[in-house]
Amino acid sequence: MSIEIRSAPHIKGPKSVEQIMRHVVWSLLPICAFYVYQYGLSAMASLVVVTGSCLLAERWFVKTGTQSGDISDYSAVITGLLLALSLPPGFPLWMGAVAGLVAIALGKALFGGIGFNVFNPALVGRAFAQAAFPQAIATYTPSFLPGRFHEMIPSSMALPLMQPADVAAWLKLKQLDALAGATPLAKWKFEGVLAGAEELITSLSGHMAVGPSPALILVCGAYLALRRYMDWRIPAAILGSAALTAWLLFAFDGTRYPNPFFMLFSGGLILGAVYMATDMATSPVTPRGMWVYGALIGILTVVIRYYSGLPEGVMYAILLGNAATPLIEKITQPTPFGKGASSLLGRQKKGASYPLHPGYISREDAGAVTPKKRFLPNKPKKQDREP
Amino acid sequence: MKLLSYFRGEAFQRGVHPPANKLTARQKIRRLPFPPKVVVPLSQHIGKAPHPIVKVGQEVVRGEPIARTDDWLSVPHHAPVTGVVEFIGLRPGARGPWVESIVIRAHPGATQQDLWGQPRDMASLSGADILQAVWDTGMVGLGGAAFPTHAKQTLPKQAHVQTLVVNGCECEPYLTCDHRVMIEQADDLVTGIRYAMRATGAVRAIVGIEDNKRDARDAVRAAIEKAGKVPEGEIHAELVPTKYPQGSEKMLIMALFGVEIPAGGLPVSLGMVVNNVGTLAALGRLLPAGRGLTERVVTVTGPGVARPGDYIVPLGTPLSFILDHAGAPNADARQIILGGPMMGQAAASLDVPITKGISGVLVMRADQVADGLARRTFPCIKCAECVESCPMGLNPSQLGMLAAKREYDLMGSRYHLGECFECGCCSYVCPSNIPLVQQFRVAKQILREKAMAAK
């Protein structure tokens, strides 16, 4: 009989990397489905093409040995889906494919694959798209267009390296105001039009060009957090700090700044807070660090939105947060058991079953040393001294 | 997760909840037959090995001392069977290297009664006498650490101990020997607690029992009531939340008293001494009879065993003999773990004998071992599961990455590697399947060697 020798522990918990990633993909599926329902064929094509491009890139880099991991760990699927969700639905497909390729190549393979990346790959892809295709990425189309399941948004099918079709003209043809294509944030920033809260949350009424539904994202994120596939602290810290900052500014000048509710539910803040900032490899591992990281992203988002030329700031805020992660981890290491202030003072926690010392014990038993009585010598006071 | 811990009423944060798998919690303790041959390794505990006082060919009676020592951190051994000393020399040890052992061939016709012991009048013994008597029994911590009990109960000069904490947590999955001892030997346990209180000068004893063992708590409480008011002080039995590693003395004290033992300190600094229930129950039986430790309760369990149970096993019984009796079909058994699955050690061969510190023999089947092998190892994805589970509040993720880069000094100086007691929580939860504890063990060993070399 042959027996195996192995190091303890000999049992393993149920969680694995594949399982975590699979659950994140599952939780993204309802969001994607509703996104397709909102924007029709183009959104569907965008999701498929971007995810496919990410998977192909991942496969190639794994095969050539540039990075560790495997496409079977589902992490490239998450990158692809998140990237597609963060792009406009009518984003030209070839640009989406390039963005997906860049996301994996520069965001992930360059650093060595899963677990080693410094920045969230999906956001690296989006940042590239923002820099390379500024026109296309700012062109949103309204949701719930009639006939969205029969025809694609014309810009989607643009030929590579060609100017995409003019969406504004196409929208005019549909008897819709060209402005309907602007996102609520752009509208507020450039037109001073504030969207209502309920429209933002459900994104069901009207033809507003909001991205994926914030309410649905919150529900799916809550599922992940409850199953402990995602840390609840990061979204809580981001949304909390963004709301607080926005509320402070709103209270300071209600006419110049929008209400915090608009801040939370417009743009990609919810998607970023729930799915992008919580990317495990790029967020701190220390519980205190998660709060700091989240707070940093929340404040940066509001600051970028209010004071920069861009209408949207979530992406850059998260990338900056990613860059700060090693530093945050360094200063927020957990306090080991028995090294905290309470243990040094020997203070007892509330609700302990027993007092530290049984019943009555004399001072000597408790280890107390009675100080010897010491009489201070009668020092002459200063003014009494001889000059 | 602090919030969750709070609602569950858990005093220490973090830790894990592995499936308990206490297969043998309802079965009575049974006695295993005496093996034809026992192997008594000289070094069964922390500290120096004692030296043999018998010769090859000499007849020994069960309970007769066969090895003795003058070293404070060491204990004597007693013959586990009546028989003839067959061999003194190297025999396979649990860790792999062969160790100095005494082999005794049992007399097939002997009654195997312990005729050596001389009953003691316990009432007349002072605290120091009790400590000497404990030393003479050869008792070490039966919970697994195998630290000599008399040394643990001896206090530094300035120390004042008020509280004896009795550890009945048994937080390791599968193991039930302490659980059954608390139920079936509760009276011995209370007797042992009284002796320990006299030896240490404690005026209060508290038995901490995990709340998945309510029957054990009831049994101990009944025994305490039966003993009535004892002159030594008060004795309590208390439930603590079920969580791994609740049985670590720091965690148990945290659960009972809500204080953290300062890092690097011992329970004595808070006026406490911690002993295992199995140790004290054995002392309660052995001290009045004046006998030595010749047998212990071992949980033989696991998916690879046909008849799992808690068995009274003579020390030195080879594993192969135990497995034959418990029914471990050879073809299926692939891994044999001495101790529990979280901190236990894989046995290197089936000739390894049961020693004083082995609380369980866990047999894993081939298909389970294969499941473990099939899991891929990923790079750390920084999911923070290990940080959430480390009971000592360390950052195993960071430590693991440093260990991979062999930055051992940094691990020790900045990331508190020395606080790690290798409970295995981080490796258990790691979704990337990184052998964190193994890396830490290597790192600690290297740091120890460096410290030795620097001296």
CATH architecture of the largest domain in chain B: 3-Layer(aba) Sandwich
Task: Report the sheet-strand fraction of chain A.
Answer: under 5%
Mean pLDDT of chain A: 82
Specify the structural class of chain A. Answer: mainly alpha
CATH superfamily of the largest domain in chain B: NADH-ubiquinone oxidoreductase 51kDa subunit
CATH fold naming of the largest domain in chain B: Rossmann fold
Low-confidence region ranges of chain A = 360-365
Order of strands across the main sheet of chain B:
1-14-13-17-15-16
Strand count, sense and barrel status of the largest sheet of chain A are:
none
Characterization of the model:
The complex is a heterodimer of chains A (387) and B (455). Chain A is mostly helical and 387 residues long. Chain A is built from 16 helices and no strands. In chain A, 52% of the residues lie in helices and 0% in strands. About 2% of the residues of chain A have low confidence. In chain B, helix 4 runs parallel beside helix 6 and helix 5 packs across helix 8. Helices cover 31% and strands 19% of the residues of chain B. Chain B has 3 domains: 187 residues, NADH-ubiquinone oxidoreductase 51kDa subunit (Rossmann fold), CATH 3.40.50.11540; 148 residues, Ubiquitin-like (UB roll), CATH 3.10.20.600; 70 residues, no CATH class. Chain B has 15 helices and 17 strands. At the A-B interface, helix 1 and helix 16 of A face strand 11, helix 7, strand 15, strand 16 and helix 11 of B.
